[in-house]
Predict the structure.
Amino acid sequence: MDVCCAAGAPVSVDYTPVGSFEEVGGVPAYITGSGSKGIIAIYDIFGFKYPQFQQVCDHLAAAGYVVAAPDIFRGQPWTLDKFPPKPEDNLMGWIQGYGWEAVVKKDVYALVEGLKARGVTRFASLGCCWGASMAIQALHDGETFSAAAMLHPSLFGQDKALCSAAKGPVACISTPGDPYESVQEVFSSTEWGPRCVYRRYDNMIHGFCGARGKFEEPDVVKAVGEVLTLLAEFFKANL
């Protein structure tokens, strides 16, 4: 988590999401796009307060997917007044309160069932930073999820354990300090290793596809555009 905290505060951008906030399967979620293939997208600790993640979702939706982002935090994400976090803020304790088994899994599967009722038949997962650690755990269920994408992932030192249990290919987009070689090492020995995609952006900061993305800067726009193209191709091949 150190690289996340060192990357600085989120930034505001001018973007109006094209999707809508709905309740699907009893879960409040941002829904965008249409079709029979769905991507469950899990944001970073800043939730929906900054619209960059929704912009990423909208672009993926334009490639032919229903993208659904559950509001895991129920409108109460980590706030900017506690960033960078002080020891007394207990960021890790707060994060542990939103664990996969205890909290996130229930929302993800309720959302999956709600989307199935709307005609979605196949699913992949995607996550930013903390959300990447949730997206890879979704892929532990290869019956439900076909692939996972991790954008500048925070895996909390559990790289091997989380990746070893995955049941499908991953796309891993990293910046300096993010898990990268450790992810490659695990997947290189699996049957789906040849279908995995990796890209590291040494000139970007952690969070550039999410709340720290300065989408008005040309180099960031270029990098994010490359990532979106890569993800669209990855999901086309694996979903």
